[in-house]
Amino acid sequence: MDNVKDILQSLTSISAPSGYEMPIVRFLKDKLSIYSNLKIEEDVLGNLIVTKNGKTDKSIMLVAHCDEIGFAVKYIDEAGFIHFSSLGGVDAHILKGRDVTIMHHGQPVYGVIGSCSVSLSRNNKSKDIDISDLWIDIGACSKSEALNNVSIGDPITFKTHYNELRNNIFSTKSVDNRVGVAILVSLIDKLHNINTDANMYFVFSVQEEVGLRGVITAGYNINPNVGIAIDVTHATDYPTINKNAFGEIRLGKGPSIPIGPNFNNLVQNKLRDIAIQNHIDYQVESISGYSGTDVAELQVARGGCQSGLLSIPCRYMHTPIEMASYDDVLSAIEILYKFCLN
Ligand SMILES: [Zn+2]
Fold this sequence. Notes:
Blueprint: H1 4-13, H2 22-32, E1 39-42, E2 48-52, E3 59-65, E4 70-76, E5 82-87, E6 99-104, E7 107-114, E8 135-137, H3 143-149, E9 155-158, E10 163-164, E11 169-172, H4 175-191, E12 199-205, H5 213-222, E13 226-234, H6 243-246, H7 265-277, H8 295-298, E14 306-314, E15 322-325, H9 326-341
Parallel strand pairs: 3-12, 3-13, 13-14
Antiparallel strand pairs: 1-2, 2-12, 4-5, 4-9, 6-7, 6-9, 7-8, 10-11, 11-15
The protein binds zinc ion.
Zinc ion binds near residues 65 and 231.
């Protein structure tokens, strides 16, 4: 198996927004097919579920959502400009001037998000932007030319480079939640030939960004004793963040092991104990309400599941330049690996 950095780089280059996860599921199936002792299957919603049998009838489910935020083609006007709607929560103010990839029958069509030049729109300078004020320009000269390359409903994602920055920090699109996917892939590689007590279910869930939908069916079908979601959390270590309201979470200081009503205390305490005993960095975050991650549904799957969350701090979430620390990813893998061995 490639190292985690290479896996991450490949995963973030794939265009697979919510509801259109097929390219990433195909990539994962291919990568994981080398482990002949594991069962790899898709459920009706498209979740990819990898199963490894254990010695007892207990089960642990680890879940990372594999979708990303994006857009879909809504309407193509007479001049060939493409109008779009969002898949998941995106701030329209960050969209102007961005490169995008439209996936049309599995092939990429490149475009840019256009807007009226500031020198031509002086009166509009302070206008609040709505996604319907923007359009995608693929260079087409007419509606029919655009329709030859793009269809209504085609998925769209940001097109960005994988940038390695200082202090083992990287930035690209879909860090939310390809870091979680990379962690699961790495755990499968480390655990595939270890005889664990519990049956292990590694779930790459779909449609998280549009309402935690994939984990609902996966959690119900697997009905695990213990579940852990792996996702990103907001880093709050950059200018203008109100720490009084959002607390302090820093990049490179370890994964967050949160506390709150969405999480089972036994699971979270165990994760924290493992980090302490093995001198692995971690951070504590108070999430006093709904966590907005797969664990919120996993916790109440069927008759309930003892479930926890481990998250990677991420700056600039839901933008094309999401940022995280590779050190935090490695720490998360270590903590979860030891948890599964227990
Ligand atoms: Zn996420």
